[in-house]
C-alpha cells in the first residue's frame, strides 16, 4: 500500500477531498463543552424551553401506538402527512397563499436537516468548477458543501440590509462578460447566519427581478424566518417566485435539532432529481423522527411555542447588545439583529479574531472567528457571537470576558505597533492562533456600535 506514513490511503482519495477542512464551529466543540467556558459560539437552540414532558409522552405514545410504521422504512420523498404539515408551516411566510399557487405536498422533499437539502441541491446542479454566488459573509455549512462539490464560490457584498442588489448585478455582469454563468445564488435572507441582518421587501423584489433578467436560480435557506422579535415574518422569496426559487426549511430552530428534519420545496422537475439523489444517499429519511415532527405539529401548540422561543431569544439578544454597549472598547462595532441567533462583531483595525482566539479560550469565552464564513479566507477582523443558548447572566459574563481580551489585544497593538498579530502572540504569550493577515481584503458587513440601527459596508 502506498501513500504516506501518516495516512497510507492518501493517494487513493478522490480529488474533492483535498480541500476539505474542519468547520470553525465544529472545531470548537471540545472546548465549549467545558462548563467553565461561556460559549457564544455554537447556534444551539434552547430546547429546554420546550414542554419536554408533553413531547416525551407524545413520542412514547407514537412508538407504542404506531411503532409498526414509525420504526419501518418509509418513502424516499418523506412521510405524506409531514409534507402536508410542512405546507402549513410555509404558509406563515406567504408560500401557497395570496397570489402564490397553493403549496403542494407533492413538491416537498423531506431531508435529514436542511443541511442535507443543501447538499442534495448542490449535487443536482453543480459540477466541479461551476460558480456559486453567495453572500459575504456566508453560512459556514454552505461553504463546506460547495467546497466538497468543488464549486467556485464568488462572494456578493452585503450591508445592514442584507444582500446588495447592485453588487449582485455587478457580479452577474462580470460573469456574463467572461462568458460564464452562476449555477445559483445562495442566500439566507432572514436573520442571516452569521451577520444577523434581514433582507427588506424592496430588495427581495429587486433580487427577484435580477433573477429574471439574468436567468438566475436562487437557493433560499430559511431556518430562522419564524424567529423574528418585533414583527410578523416577511414574505419568503419563494412566495414571490415559484420557478426561480428553491426553498430550504428546517425544524431544527423551531422544534428540535436532534430530530434532524428539514425539507426542500422545489419545482416538479427538480423535485424528481432531489428524490433520486436522496435515495442514493440515505434510501429514505428516518421515519421515527418524521412521525414525531408530524405528531408534534398535529397535537402541540407549535405556533405558540415559536412565540415562546422568540421571547426567550429577544431577552438574550437584549442582554448581548446591552453588554456590548456597556463593555466593549472604542472601535468595536456590531450588528443589531431583530430575530434569529447571531450578532456579527467587527474588531478594530490591526486585530485578528482567529489569532485572538486562543487568548479568548484561556479567558474562558468562545466565539467563532469570521474567517470561517468566507470562501477566500478573508474576514480576519470579524467574529460571530451566538446568544441563543446561554442564559442572560452567562451572556453578560461572556461579553465581559471577551471585552477584557479585546482590551488586552489593543494594549499589545499599542505597545508593539505594526507587528503582525500572529508574530506578536508567539513572541509575547507563546500562543499560536490561526494564520491570516489583518491587512487582507475583507468584504463584510461593517456594523455600527452602541446598539443603534446598524450601518454596513461591504469591502
Describe the structure.
The model is unreliable at 427-444 and 448-459 (pLDDT under 50). This protein folds into two domains: 15-44 and 305-428, Alpha-Beta Complex (Aspartate Aminotransferase, domain 1); 71-299, Aspartate Aminotransferase, domain 2, CATH 3.40.640.10. Strands 2-9-8-7-6-3-4-5 form an eight-stranded mixed beta sheet, sandwiched between helices. 40% of the residues lie in helices and 13% in strands. The chain has 14 helices and 14 strands. The chain is of the alpha/beta class and 459 residues long. β6, α7 and β7 (218-221) form a beta-alpha-beta unit. The termini are far apart. It is globular, with a radius of gyration of 22 Å.
List keywords for this structure.
single chain, 459 residues, alpha/beta, Aspartate Aminotransferase, domain 1, Aspartate Aminotransferase, domain 2, 2 domains, 4-stranded antiparallel β-sheet, 14 helices, 14 strands
Amino acid at each position: 500500500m502506498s501513500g504516506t506514513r501518516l495516512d497510507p490511503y492518501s493517494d487513493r482519495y478522490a480529488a474533492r477531498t483535498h480541500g476539505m477542512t474542519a468547520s470553525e464551529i465544529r472545531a470548537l466543540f471540545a472546548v465549549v463543552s467545558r462548563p467553565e467556558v461561556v460559549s457564544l459560539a455554537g447556534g444551539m437552540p434552547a430546547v429546554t424551553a420546550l414542554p419536554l414532558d408533553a413531547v416525551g409522552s407524545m413520542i412514547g405514545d407514537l412508538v407504542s401506538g404506531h411503532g409498526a410504521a414509525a420504526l419501518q422504512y418509509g418513502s424516499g420523498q418523506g412521510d405524506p402527512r409531514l409534507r402536508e404539515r410542512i405546507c402549513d408551516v410555509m404558509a406563515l411566510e406567504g408560500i401557497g397563499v395570496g397570489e402564490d399557487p397553493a403549496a403542494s405536498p407533492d413538491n416537498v422533499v423531506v431531508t435529514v436537516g436542511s443541511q442535507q437539502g443543501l447538499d442534495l441541491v448542490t449535487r443536482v446542479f453543480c459540477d466541479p468548477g461551476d460558480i456559486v454566488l453567495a453572500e459575504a459573509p456566508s453560512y459556514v455549512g454552505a461553504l463546506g458543501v460547495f467546497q466538497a462539490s468543488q464549486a467556485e464560490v464568488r462572494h456578493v457584498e452585503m450591508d445592514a440590509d442584507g444582500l446588495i442588489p447592485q453588487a449582485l448585478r455587478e457580479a452577474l455582469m462580470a460573469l456574463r462578460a467572461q462568458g460564464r454563468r452562476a449555477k445559483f445564488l445562495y442566500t439566507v435572507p432572514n436573520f442571516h447566519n452569521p451577520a444577523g441582518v434581514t433582507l427588506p421587501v424592496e430588495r427581495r423584489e429587486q433580487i427577484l427581478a435580477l433573477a429574471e433578467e439574468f436567468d438566475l436560480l436562487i437557493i433560499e435557506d430559511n431556518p430562522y424566518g419564524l424567529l423574528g422579535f418585533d414583527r410578523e415574518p416577511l414574505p419568503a422569496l419563494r412566495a414571490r417566485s415559484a420557478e426561480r426559487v428553491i426553498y430550504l426549511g428546517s425544524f431544527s430552530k423551531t422544534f428540535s435539532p436532534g430530530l434532524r428534519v428539514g425539507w426542500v420545496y422545489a419545482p416538479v422537475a427538480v423535485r424528481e432529481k432531489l428524490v433520486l439523489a436522496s435515495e442514493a444517499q440515505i434510501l429514505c429519511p428516518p421515519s421515527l423522527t418524521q412521525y414525531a415532527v408530524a405528531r408534534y405539529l398535529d397535537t402541540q401548540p407549535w405556533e405558540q411555542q415559536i412565540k415562546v422561543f422568540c421571547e426567550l431569544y429577544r431577552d438574550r439578544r437584549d442582554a448581548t447588545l446591552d453588554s456590548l454597549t456597556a463593555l466593549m472598547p472604542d472601535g468595536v462595532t456590531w450588528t443589531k439583529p431583530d430575530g434569529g441567533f447571531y450578532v456579527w462583531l467587527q474588531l478594530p483595525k490591526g486585530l485578528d479574531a482567529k489569532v485572538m482566539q486562543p487568548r479568548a479560550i484561556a479567558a474562558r469565552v468562545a466565539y467563532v472567528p469570521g474567517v470561517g464564513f468566507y470562501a477566500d479566507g478573508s474576514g480576519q477582523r470579524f467574529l460571530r457571537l451566538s446568544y441563543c443558548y446561554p442564559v442572560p447572566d452567562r451572556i453578560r459574563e461572556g461579553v465581559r470576558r471577551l471585552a477584557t481580551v479585546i482590551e488586552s489585544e489593543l494594549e499589545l497593538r499599542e505597545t508593539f505597533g505594526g507587528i503582525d498579530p500572529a508574530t506578536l502572540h508567539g513572541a509575547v504569550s507563546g500562543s499560536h492562533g490561526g494564520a491570516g493577515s489583518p491587512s487582507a481584503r475583507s468584504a463584510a458587513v461593517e456594523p455600527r456600535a452602541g446598539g443603534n440601527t446598524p450601518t454596513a459596508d461591504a469591502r
